[in-house]
Amino acid sequence: MKIVVIGANAAGAKAAAKAKRMNPHAEITVVDRGSFISYGACGIPYYVSDMVKDEKELMSTPVGVVRDPAFFRKVKGVEVLTETEAVTIDRQNRKVSLLKVVSGESSCIEYDTLILATGSSPVIPPLEGRTLPGIITVKSIEDAILLKEQAVSGDRACVVGAGLIGLETVEALTQRGMQVTVVELCGSPDAHGVLDRVRYLH
Ligand SMILES: Cc1cc2nc3c(=O)[nH]c(=O)nc-3n(C[C@H](O)[C@H](O)[C@H](O)COP(=O)(O)OP(=O)(O)OC[C@H]3O[C@@H](n4cnc5c(N)ncnc54)[C@H](O)[C@@H]3O)c2cc1C
Fold it and tell me: The pTM is what?
């Protein structure tokens, strides 16, 4: 039995591991277009604030083992292909076409069961200038690396959106000594009391 999972973060990695436990003889392949897999996105603000120094810590088990493709192969018996995008699904012939993000190489993988764990994407409002440099979403480790690089070189930030992720990002940036302005469409963004702890807030 061949099981293919698209997406190798929280949902995809868990689904693959569970499927292997339930079907020990199944051949399970997980593909993800990103470089980082099975990470705790909730740790991103701690990485941005520098409390977590290395992005690999976000992919680590409680005993410090990094959950990379080698870990999944050895410990879970699951094959993980990173930097590999699922481009089309042929449901009639049960095939997924894949594209290697870096080399542009194409291939195909067959499945008996296909699991979609492709997650979500940040909503970027249709604002003029939204593609200018220095504008970063907070979703993935790749975003967090960019944000940390910018936080090292800059001293001011504007965070658009005062939901949980926005406010945790505000806290992380202010802990780095940045001057942060929050822009929020709705009123009363301080549901979690985070703004009280922001030192340089306008
Ligand atoms: C800063 C931050 C803090 C958070 N804090 C918390 C918290 O404290 N508590 C909590 O419960 N949740 C928190 N969350 C939310 C939590 O991280 C998400 O709910 C979780 O990551 C969802 O996992 P997922 O696997 O469903 O989706 P995603 O994490 O979106 O993963 C989907 C994966 O699919 C891949 N993918 C998508 N399309 C394709 C394709 N065509 N081909 C190949 N790969 C593809 C993507 O590259 C991605 O790796 C936080 C999120 C963020 C960003």
Answer: 0.91
